[in-house]
Amino acid sequence: MLVRARVLLPISRPPIEDAAISIVGNRIRAVGRWKDLSRQVGGRVLDLGDVTILPGLVNAHCHLDYTAMAGELPPTKKFTDWLKLITTSKSGLTYSDFAKSWLDGAKMLIRTGTTTVGDIEMVPELLPEVWTATPLRVFSFLEMTGVISRRPPRDIIREALDVIKTLPNGRCRAGLSPHAPYSTAPELLRLAANTSRRRRMRVVTHVAESDLEFDMFTHGRGEMFDWLARNRRDMADCGLGTPVQHLERQGALNENLLAVHVNYLGPGDAALLGRRKVNVVHCPRSHAYFKHQPFPFDELVSARVNICLGTDSLASVYQARKRSVELNLFDEMRELANRMPSLSPEIVLRTATINGARALGMPGEIGELSRNAFADLIAVPHRGKIDEAYAAAIQHRGDVTASMIDGQWVIAPSDLPA
Description:
The structure is a single chain. The chain is α/β, with parallel strands linked by helices. The chain folds into two domains: 2-55 and 368-415, Urease, subunit C, domain 1, CATH 2.30.40; 57-359, Alpha-Beta Barrel (TIM Barrel). It is 34% helix and 22% strand. It contains 16 helices and 16 strands. Strands 1, 2, 3, 4, 5, 14, 15 and 16 form an eight-stranded mixed beta sheet that branches. α5 packs parallel to α6 (186-199). The protein is globular and about 70 Å long. The model has no long low-confidence stretch (mean pLDDT 95).
């Protein structure tokens, strides 16, 4: 197949005008100008017209299980109050509720241009059925806690690995997610880090998300410290340094790690994350929902940290009255651009494509349009100039015009209204 478009944004190289992309099977064979590829490459031609083709978006952090919670949890003054609310909300949901929520969220992502998602899975029983029910490229990270239940960390790891052993190898993959430093024992963080390195798996944890977490670990005090102490959490790991430094003591900082949020940093934390080649996932709308201090984007970039984007869950996205919200990386890119107007549209788009691919361990395979990459691509309308394509892309609203995952149309151009 040879697909033609007004503009093509490969991400890994400059934009191409009057462009074409050659696809053979589930891989990209060539990318270039239409006049060149049309002479060199055979196959069926599909001209998409006035659109920009770009890589399928890579959503590096999501909670599909919580999609149905959209608008149910109003913003709270304290992060711990929100934790209590979501814990109560989850307790009333059934397996069927979680399954419907997961699938509804997956459909939202496909409509709005995501082709790969890193998802935190609280209900592993949903796997692998939900994998087969969606064309998305899914990384399911099995959530692990254990502070309240006081289960031995080795049992928690063993149980998660037993689930992963039963899952098929293919388009979707699985990994580990010790939830957060405050909700897991230090031993669980160490075991998850060591296991992931040995098995070459990605591991995800929420870290330095709130000022309360930062105060708890750095100073051994505050609302979160007192709340968890009342719930009989062992607080001996607090008062010894920042949440990032806590992960370093457990040997958890490495290039396999996706550190989600990282909103609050102490002196030297950014440099430490850079040295350890940790990937940081920023969730702009969730960040705004909790009214956190400004995200330390420039500080992390200066330390050579790879920053990518995630949607988080709809349980932490503000929903205005009589308006709906959805899982949408274009919305996240616009929020980032609005909060940080100094960022170029190209840098913003990289956080939702090539940077996410690197974080998930698939550089050169997803998040870019290049030879031998998977044929994961989307199209959005564009009638402007080529030098406006990046800015126009991140301002796109609504469903994408077309979407392809693994060489198969999941939103085919011919299926759209004229």
